[in-house]
Design goal:
Oligomer: single chain
Strand content: under 5%
Number of strands: 0
Largest sheet: none
Structural class: mainly alpha
CATH class of the largest domain: Mainly Alpha
Number of domains: 2
């Protein structure tokens, strides 16, 4: 997501800390297998043995579980759900979307993993597998833009992990840039695309077409579009996420901009929580950061 900063600021020794603090939801790591993961393990044999009957309804249920696990930072469940979707890739009517959600599960598993100080090789493996799933999704449905959007983000994280390997970085940037051009040409107003490119704009100097105001404008536009195209949650295998993520990014941006707007930041954060009450990062980390900033700004008693 951040081609412009991969070869610059992320080369510093503080790059890993900066990435976790600024760009990746700081979800608390899980200690051991969660209850959700245990339930998935217990249910897995029966589910995998079931013929592909009522496949769409089953996949729709898995999609809802994947998104919930993402917000909760449940990496164990995300991996299990990736596996649970495998039998459905054989259905030609569902293959593209099943591949997309398998890629999504690993993409978000990797993002959450950055906050647990996981082995970079494990994160790289998740991201590479996610890219492969997104590419297979696109191959099954060339007009499906969201698969390209997911791949753009994964490739950008891989650029960060390849820091120091110039040849690999250049190759990954070229792959991602090509996809960015494709999406800009076909669906520049996709709200999820506007969310993914927001951090790029944030770190590009204003004189080069980026900057904080441009990033916030993109998030704002994406939020408006997401609300206009909103579909009932949990009733589709099409990607409909975006509104909570855009609200979170607007909350973070208003907190961290040069001239912080703490009132707006808190408002956006609470709006995100109204949509996703279980979102650990927003509820337990971002809101606390906002409140800490508010306390620091308040006049001290003499």
């Amino acid at each position: 997501m951040r081609h412009e900063i991969q070869e610059g600021s992320l080369r510093s020794s503080r790059a890993w800390t900066t990435l976790k603090r600024r760009y990746i939801p700081q979800l608390i790591g899980w200690g051991g297998i969660t209850m959700a993961a245990i339930l998935l393990i217990l249910a897995a044999p029966a589910a995998w043995a079931t013929p592909l009957k009522d496949s769409r309804a089953t996949v729709t249920g898995f999609v809802a579980q994947i998104q919930k696990a993402d917000y909760e930072g449940d990496r164990a469940a995300l991996r299990l759900l990736f596996d649970r979707l495998e039998p459905f890739v054989a259905d030609p009517n569902l293959a593209s979307r099943v591949r997309y959600w398998r890629g999504f599960a690993l993409w978000r598993r990797a993002i959450n993993g950055f906050n647990e100080s996981d082995d970079p090789k494990d994160l790289q493996k998740d991201l590479e597998l996610a890219v492969a799933e997104f590419r297979d999704s696109s191959a099954n449905d060339p007009g499906f833009v969201d698969a390209k959007i997911g791949a753009i983000s994964c490739l950008s994280f891989l650029v960060f992990l390849a820091n120091g390997d110039t040849a690999r970085m250049q190759d990954l940037v070229a792959q991602s840039s090509s996809l960015v051009k494709e999406v800009k040409a076909s669906a520049p107003d996709n709200p999820r695309f506007l969310w993914v490119i927001g951090p790029i704009l944030w770190n590009i100097p204003a004189e080069r077409g980026g900057g904080q105001d441009q990033a916030i404008a993109g998030y704002t536009k994406g939020l408006e579009l997401a609300r206009k195209t909103k579909l009932p949650s949990g009733q589709t295998i099409e990607p409909t996420w975006g509104e909570p993520e855009l609200l979170m990014s607007l909350a973070w941006s208003n907190l961290n901009r040069t001239a912080p707007d703490l009132k707006s930041s808190e408002g956006f954060a609470r709006s995100a929580l109204a949509l996703v009450p279980c979102w650990h990062y927003v509820r337990d980390i971002l809101l606390r950061q906002i409140q800490t900033a508010e306390v620091a700004r308040s006049p001290r008693p003499r």
